[in-house]
Amino acid sequence: MLKPTATDLPGIIDTVGSWQREGLPLQVHPGDLGWYQRFGVEALASALRVWTVGDEPAAVGFLDESELIRMAISPDHSDDQALAEAILADLNGDLSELLPAGKGIVEARFGSALQHTLTEAGWGSDEAWTTLHRDLSEPIPSVTQRIETVDPDRADNRIADRIAVESSAFPGSSLTSDRWRSMADGHAYKQAKCLVGFTADGAPAGATTVWSAGPRRPGVIEPLGVHGDHRGHGFGVEMTLAAAAALREMGASSVTVATPTSNTVAVATYRAAGMSILGEVRDFCRP
Questions:
Q1: Cα→Cα distances 187→5, 73, 78, 82, Å
Q2: Using CA atoms, how far apart are residues 167 and 69, in angstroms rounded to an integer?
Q3: Which end of the chain has fewer CB within 10 Å, C or N?
């Protein structure tokens, strides 16, 4: 298990991107890392752990929140029992203070060996998440809402509108203008877009950031929200369609998203926008 530096980030992000494949469960995506970079490159590097087999990365752990690590596993090492046991040893060893007994959470949505190893070690089930997906091989229906892309290089950029929606949709949001620019300067954002949707009278109503992993790979929505003053008018569906269209333009093969199953409004919104439920997954909780 290695602790990367800021200079390692482009390579790690590209590697995680190469592990995104159609037909595989949704796991940590370059967009998850790119969104976290709003806290800065050093913070992102500090939040990552990389497991190698030989000289090649085989797994990446992302310490996304307190007491939570989210895993990405190379498709070539999904059944690697030795790797799974090494990861478990580090979860119980060097990472034990970050993942305390009874509270530590591991998101391991892919990698049968790691999933089996955690189960055999007594890790239980945590919160349920619903994953949704839409194929992008066909054109996406157009939306009536005015959608603009946030561009930091334009004098009339919409950063303030993007932040206003985020702050209303997610109380306690950490997004600021400086943090948005830090995110937009990141390697992952080279294949990303921030979109803002407006009401007929020009008020920011919805916003999202979409992330591609490269042509013919699944893209993700991270995050999407609707301003509290404009809920119940279909803006969530419109923003989801706009997100799908943007990813299609970038060459993504599909759009995917995961949301807590308990958030029934979000699940219903994504389904109304033409996304299909892939299934329900649960994180692992340390005994």
A1: 14, 20, 26, 31
A2: 25
A3: C
